[in-house]
Structure formats: structure tokens, C-alpha cells
Amino acid sequence: MNKQLIESETSVVVVGASLAGLMTGIALANAGLNVTIVERAGAERRSGAGLQVNNGERDISTTAKYLRKITSGGSSSVEAWSSIEARLRREAQTNPQIDLRFNTRIQAVHQNDEAAWVITDKGEKFSGDMLIGADGYRSTVRRHVAPDHPDATFAGYLIWVAMVDEQNIPKQYRPGPNPGLAMPNGNGDFLLGFVVAGADGSCTVGQRRLGWAWYDNTQNDLLRQLGCVKGNVVQHSLTGADIPTETLANLSKKAKQRWSQPWLAAIEHSIQTRNLVATPIVEYVPEVLVQGRIALVGDAAHVPNPLTASGFNASLEDAATLTDCFIKENDVTEALLQYQSRRLKQVRQIVQSGQSFSRSFGR
């Protein structure tokens, strides 16, 4: 990307260093802004599921193409979340205009006519000409932008998610080269299976990773009993160590009745090692994306059903559009209003497109 420098010494604070936050920070830094990214989690690597990353054929702007090059390498495939995050983190950490801070949990969000800022749980203040909320579906920044509509809502089901090293799958079950996305028939259940490169980037059979995502609408009572869901609001996911043994035993029994190889072997290995996560699914249809000098991107702005396979690509478009609007306007409030004008209708449609599945499957 040819850096299109902004003449003013504009600064921005990005809350959240997941994919949307990193992409937004990188794009704005390459447009000449001074960027501080604050992330509540530590710097240790996190895991995640697979993401559908398209090849950017519809990307028009230089900014979007630049972000696509970093995240996908120009290919159209399912990518491991961790692989995309690693590329973006390297890019952010080597950019002198980005200050990336982990273990920084925000407690309050404020703004006036001249600036926007956050206060952390340690009393630190991070201020900028604008503030971007990229802090996920339980966004704290969203509560400032949309106080009348602050929470994403539980869709009525969860997804069991895991990633398994292919070497843990019996050789006779390992997929051949270029297996693509699998959607096996599970007698009414729904599963997505995919193969991605190994942690070292290897695509050699036996060195890759198998990911699976099992949609399950039978665990809602468990989620409420364990405090994962309160009312209609998701509080947290359920990690392997906290999943009741009886639940895992029932899941294994059900898997043997539902799924074919290699997905059965991958699921059973995940259950045996407790290397899986139960993620309650949420949805959020935004009414606004901007309030003054503060804007939302990614899951803080909109949360579509995972089946739409649009979450990552929508986040990339958020980051590119916001940056392009600022390059064009060179005024914070005008740029953010232009961003909202260009993105709000589109992201609402993306979320709404997946709601019919949730209404039928989740309830």
C-alpha cells in the first residue's frame, strides 16, 4: 500500500487487538495516523476457529487490497484464525506508528468536541482525535455509541469448535490434498469441517490441521446453569476444562451416531483431550455505527451468524472503508459520518441474512 499521509498529526485509539482492531489500526497507521491499540488480553497467542477468507476480487480500494494481501496472501480459502492474527500482529508490531498494548482493560469511555478517550482499570488514560471500538460482541465501547441498544443477543444455540493436528488422526482417515469445506449429513444436526495449514504453514498431508464446528441447539439449559448465558445476553464461552464430563460423554455418543470420518476422529480426539470450546452464538443488528468521534468496527459493530461466512470479510471492509473516508475527508466527524453512511445498511443486511437460520434452528 502506498502510504497516503494525512497532513495533520491525527491520533486514534483502537480498543481491541483481535482481527478487526488490528486491521483498522494497520490501515489507519499506513494512512499516516498515530495509532494506539489497547487489548485487555495478554500477549500470549490465542487459538480460534477457521475463517472463510475470500481472495478480494471485489475489493476496490487500495486500502482493502493491502489488508487482503496481509491476511490472505491473495488466496481464497478457509484460514485458521490464529494464522491471520499472527500475520496482522507482526505487521502492527513492526509499524513505528502503532503502539500495541496488551493487558489493558478499559473501564470507561468519554469524548468531547475535541477528543475521545478511555480510562483503564489501572487509571490510565488513552486519548485520541478519534476512538474506534473493536472490542468484540460484548463491546464496552458500544455502550457509549448505542446506549439504547448495547447488547448482542443469544441466538438460541452454541457451536462446539476445535482444531486438531492431523497427526492425531489415523492415517486411513486423513483427507487427500485440497479437500475443501465439508458439510457432512448429520441427521438434522449441522457440522462444518475444514482443513487448514499446520502451525508451521505446511500443507503436506499429515502435517495440516483439521477444524470442525458443530452447531448444537440442545445445550441451552447447560449454558444457563453454568452462567454462560443470562437472560438473553451471552456472558462467556465454555472452555474444555469447564465442560461437565457427562456432557462430553453424551457429545461423544452423539458424534458416533452422526458423523463420518475424518470428522468423527477429530471430534473424539478433541473430546478426549478437552481441547474444544462451546461458543454461544450471538447476533447484533446495529442501529448506528458512530457517535461523535467514536466508531465501531467488526463484532463490536455487527455480529452475523457464522453460517454467513461474512464476519471476517465485513470486518476488513469496515477497516478499509473507515480509513478511506478519513483520507478523503481529513476531518474526524465528517469521516466517521461518511463511514456510517457507507457501511450501516450493508452490515445490517449481512446480519439479517443469517437470522432465518437462527429462528428455525435456535428456537
Question: Describe it for me?
Answer:
β7 (116-120) and β8 form a beta hairpin. The protein is 33% helix and 25% strand. The protein is an alpha+beta fold. The chain has 2 domains: 11-151 and 284-361, FAD/NAD(P)-binding domain (3-Layer(bba) Sandwich); 153-282, 2-Layer Sandwich (D-Amino Acid Oxidase, Chain A, domain 2). The strands form 5 sheets. It has a 6-stranded mixed β-sheet with strand order 5-2-1-9-19-18. It has a 6-stranded antiparallel β-sheet with strand order 11-12-13-10-17-16. A 3-stranded antiparallel β-sheet has the order 6-7-8, with no helix packed on it. The chain contains 10 helices and 19 strands. Residues 9-52, 82-146, 280-352 form the FAD-binding domain. Residues 154-258 form the 2,6-dihydroxypyridine 3-monooxygenase substrate binding domain.
Write the layout of secondary structure elements.
Layout: E1 11-15, H1 19-30, E2 34-38, E3 50-53, H2 62-72, E4 77-80, H3 81-93, E5 98-101, E6 106-111, E7 116-120, E8 125-128, E9 130-133, H4 142-145, E10 153-165, E11 185-186, E12 189-196, E13 209-216, H5 220-225, E14 229-230, E15 233-234, E16 238-239, H6 245-258, H7 263-273, E17 277-283, E18 290-291, E19 294-296, H8 311-329, H9 332-353, H10 355-361
Helix pairs in contact: 1-3, 1-8, 2-8, 6-7, 8-9
